[in-house]
Specification:
The chain is about 25% helix and about 35% strand. Residues about 35-45, about 80, about 115-160 and about 190-205 have low confidence and may be disordered. The strands form 8 sheets. It has a 4-stranded antiparallel sheet with strand order 5-28-27-26, with no helix packed on it. Strands 6-7-8-9 form a 4-stranded antiparallel sheet. Strands 10-11-12-13 form a 4-stranded antiparallel sheet, with no helix packed on it. Strand 6 and strand 7 (about 230-235) form a beta hairpin. The chain is of the alpha+beta class.
């Protein structure tokens, strides 16, 4: 039995003949399967349930709380350990109807067309029964399912023709009117279809979707080097996430705290995280699922229409966190430092939208972004005291253009990596000259922040927002992205002590 047959059989068992499966059935089945292969328990049942619940969220790409067979098959194919070559061959074989080892323009046209002609009909309740009675042609079913995977790029017949012509032009090296498997695999990284599947290694630019979280306002990425997990928040949806690249799963944690904007792991307790919110600084315990306000924001400032925004911990262990007006229309915020004992100082006032923060490799310079001012400023920085002096502009953006700088990080060469809100890109700048070095397109209009992660700290994780976005043009808006092969590396991020 091949991969797709096994997938169908597994889906039928999970859904019990229904078109979709729910979270409870999915988690229960996966727990049973896991226990059969792990005779000696290594994690608790609560942890198992959380892991498989996160897996369900990863499979549920449209976020409707149910997983249909197309999503199930898509998830199995794309989170499998198979290589891009194997995944490309899987698609090629399903399209090659006459099994002659070539794809013709008619086969490709039919592949796209099937997506419009009801590929989803194979999810009918009769599927499992009819397949068992040999009433269905399996190749036709697999073919239709494959088309459903690419339905996002097939909207009408005109679009189909454009894609078909472009694909033939791209892949037909011999110009003989057909595509061989060798040609298909040779250009697999260029095939537009794969760009809608979120496969990590397919993009020449090294950009991939790693979590389809579709955040309203994704922000505050923090790589926990000790656990190998990335944490980030959705400010508007009152959630924070943990993404594990080793399992490719994302766990979601809901909070009652309004506007959670920055997340930092607690140094002493893996279950606790410090969050900046509208009400102030709060400790959140993921095991007990509760939160407590540590320092009310009113102790910092008496401005009811403000909230905290971006924040980061320096090497000395102090948290830098800035505030902003909720509507983002006034220079009414400030930048603060908070020590583990709760003492704090105001470092800067008259801030519009407090955003990117980072420090030079030698810890002598601090960089800061106040987004409405459209520039990056540098300060002489005293690590022992946190004092910042000698403010100067290092990167200045055009005032007459809409995109603005948002979150920021730095690499080991001292170059700045800046997320561009409204600009659909991350840009590397040299702070010594202010010049742009590299611009990396991101398939999201509003790119919010970035940080280094991965075992070698050479993966740039990028958050984005779905709000204020043309989602037809940017369907991946709000997702978490990973940028690889930049040639740069970053520094470990710092946790915060709870005293």
């Amino acid at each position: 039995m091949d991969f797709a047959h096994r997938a169908l059989a597994q889906f039928g068992e999970l859904s019990q003949g229904k078109n979709t499966l729910d979270r409870t059935a999915f988690v229960e089945h996966m727990e049973k399967a896991w226990k059969k292969t792990h005779l000696v328990p290594t994690v608790s049942e609560d942890e198992l349930a959380l892991d498989f619940s996160a897996m369900f969220d990863a499979y549920d790409t449209d976020g409707n709380g149910e997983v249909n067979f197309v999503e199930f098959l898509n998830g199995l194919v794309l989170v499998s350990d198979s290589s891009l070559k194997e995944k490309a061959q899987f698609i090629f074989n399903s399209w090659d109807h006459d099994k002659d080892g070539y794809l013709t323009i008619n086969e490709i046209r039919e592949a796209y067309g099937k997506a419009l002609e009801g590929a989803w009909r194979v999810l009918d309740n009769k599927l499992a029964k009819d397949l068992g009675a040999n009433k269905w042609n399996w190749n036709g079913i697999l073919f239709s399912l494959t088309q459903a995977l690419i339905s996002a790029v097939a909207h009408d017949k005109d679009v189909i023709e454009v894609h078909v012509d472009a694909l033939m032009e791209l892949l037909d090296d011999n110009k003989d009117g057909r595509i061989s498997l060798e040609e298909w695999l040779r250009h697999s990284a260029d095939i537009p279809i794969f760009k809608h599947l979120g496969v990590d290694e397919i993009h020449h630019s090294g950009v991939s979707i790693v979590s389809r979280c579709h955040c309203k306002l994704g922000e505050g990425p923090h790589w926990d080097d000790k656990r190998g997990i990335l944490f980030f928040v959705d400010i508007l949806d009152q959630k924070f996430f943990s993404y594990n690249p080793s399992t490719r799963l994302t766990q979601v944690h809901s909070s009652t705290l309004s506007y959670p904007s920055c997340i930092v792991p607690c140094k002493e307790n893996n279950d606790e995280f410090l969050l900046t919110t509208q009400k102030g600084l709060a400790w959140f315990n993921v095991k007990e699922i509760n939160s407590e306000i540590w320092i009310e924001r009113t102790k910092f400032e008496d401005k009811a229409e403000n909230r905290f925004n971006d924040g980061k911990v320096d090497l000395a262990g102090r948290l830098w966190a800035g505030t902003m007006a909720i509507d983002g229309k006034r220079q009414d915020g400030s930048l603060y430092t908070i020590e583990p004992d709760g003492t704090f100082q105001t470092r800067r006032t008259n801030v519009g939208i407090s955003n990117g923060l980072c420090w030079s490799p030698d810890q002598k310079v601090m960089y800061f972004i106040d987004s409405p001012l459209k520039k990056v400023v540098a300060f002489d920085y005293d690590q022992a005291t946190g004092n910042i002096t000698n403010e100067r502009d290092v990167v200045v953006f055009p005032q007459d253009q809409e995109p603005v700088p948002d979150g920021m990080t730095i690499d080991t060469e001292g170059m700045l990596w800046i997320a561009i809100w409204g600009g659909a890109r991350v840009v590397r700048y040299d702070p010594s000259s202010g010049s742009e070095l590299t611009s990396i397109p991101i398939p999201a209009q509003n790119v919010t922040s970035c940080c280094w992660g991965g075992a070698e700290l050479d993966v740039l994780y990028v958050t984005s927002a779905r709000c204020d976005t043309d989602t037809k043009k940017y369907p991946a808006a709000g997702c978490l992205f990973a940028v690889r092969n930049t040639g740069a590396k970053g520094f470990p991020m710092n946790s915060f002590s709870r005293k």
